[in-house]
Amino acid sequence: MNRTLVKQALEDNLLAERIRIQGWIRTRRDAKSFSFLELNDGSCLKNLQVVVDAGLPDYRRLPEATTGAAVAVEGRLVESQGKGQSREVVADSLEIVGVADQTYPLQKKGHTQEYLRTIAHLRPRTNLFGSVFRVRSRLAQAVHRFFLGRDFVLIHSPIITANDCEGAGELFQVTTRGTPASPAGSDRNFFGQPTYLTVSGQLSAEAFACALSNVYTFGPTFRAENSNTSRHANEFWMIEPEMAFCDLAGNMDLAESFVKYLIQDIRTHCPQELELFQRFVDRELASRLDFVLGNPFKRLSYAEAVAILQRSGKNFQFPVEYGVNLQSEHERYLTEEHFRQPVTVHDYPRDSKPFYMRTNDDGRTVAAMDVLVPGIGELVGGSQREEREDVLRSQFERHGLDSQKYRWYLELRRYGTVPHSGFGLGFERLVMFVTGLANIRDVIPFARTPGSAEF
């Protein structure tokens, strides 16, 4: 007999049917002649109540059906006569698949997010984190639907690379030194040159965009940044589209529509999870999501943004002056207080940006953009890429980079160069925005942060 998901049993027209449910016990309540099991298999937020009569042959094993135990139940799905649920299963058989002893840490009480990080292998069984990771899964699928619906080609960019895309030097080096393949003290590089875990799939995406026009990457990226803030992790996922024959305006159009599409998808398909986040995580979540959906993006230059911030009269923690990077408090002021709509800031000072961004005609700014939303600030960052070989070479010199290491990247500017643009969206930051959770460690299955790679 095929397994029926709890979600199907609660939502589909299965009443009076004989079904088989497998899952984990959340709670058990015993009466004189029967017991109630609350069963959840992770398919949805709600539990399914199972009524187990004392006359069942397997009832003698019921003491083993403690919180956390895995069971398989067969029976009829009927309308519930009790309060709190519309349907329940009247069990014909009960199988204890896997017991959970008295040390099982997830009992029927509240647990802090900090504590649950210490048992990250079990936290998906809680209502909160089960909801978080169902939403994360739904968002990942929505990313692919968005791009495939616009004829983008998915590119699997390398995880091991010899290039530092951002030029910041925060790289994890790949080495076999100290292993049987390469004893301690050996200077041999496995790939013939120093290699690193990638910080971005952008450069690879640019190469493919110059052949396939519209492409995107979606994969893990790594930064060796020794930061323990709630917004930073050393391993995270990035979504990076790249479009040939596309200028900065077209890039902003795509980024803004992408953000709205993803929020609308979760708003439509994850109402139960969003209700839980609204009640227990962030009471302003729904209004903030609707704020982005219901308002157009306001576009302004970086210079205009700085002028507005300087005239605001606000006592910012980080002083504002032309040339400095905008901080989250500045970005949130623009969206939440000044414009009261999502914002896209463009044309940043050249000196504060990476080598690959296209220099504007004024020689002082680059064709870069950031998409800002309330609560978080920057959600998307991107630019038109520098397609002129001579200008790109001068950028390598300005940033102290060896142009020979980027030989293939320069050749793209020599063989049929075209204007092209792209952006990056940190997937975990997106999940934080739509769930209201404030710590990146709570939206990734097993967080990798300084001093912590336990699971």
Quick overview of this protein structure:
The protein has 455 residues and is an alpha+beta fold. 29% of the residues lie in helices and 24% in strands.
CATH topology of the largest domain: BirA Bifunctional Protein, domain 2
- For this structure, the quaternary state is single chain
Secondary-structure element string: HEEEEEHHEEEEHEEHHHEHHEEEHHEH
**Rg on CA atoms, Å:** 26 Å
Count of helical regions:
12
How many domains? The number is 2
Termini separation: 35 Å
Major sheet characteristics:
8 strands, mixed
Q: Given the C-alpha coordinates, what overall shape results?
A: elongated
Secondary structure tally: strands:
16
Kindly state the percentage of residues in helix: 25-40%
The chain-level structural class is: alpha+beta
Architecture (CATH level 2) name of the largest domain: 2-Layer Sandwich
Q: Taking strands numbered 1, 2, ... along the chain, how are they ordered across the largest sheet?
A: 6-10-11-16-15-14-13-12
CATH class value of the largest domain: Alpha Beta
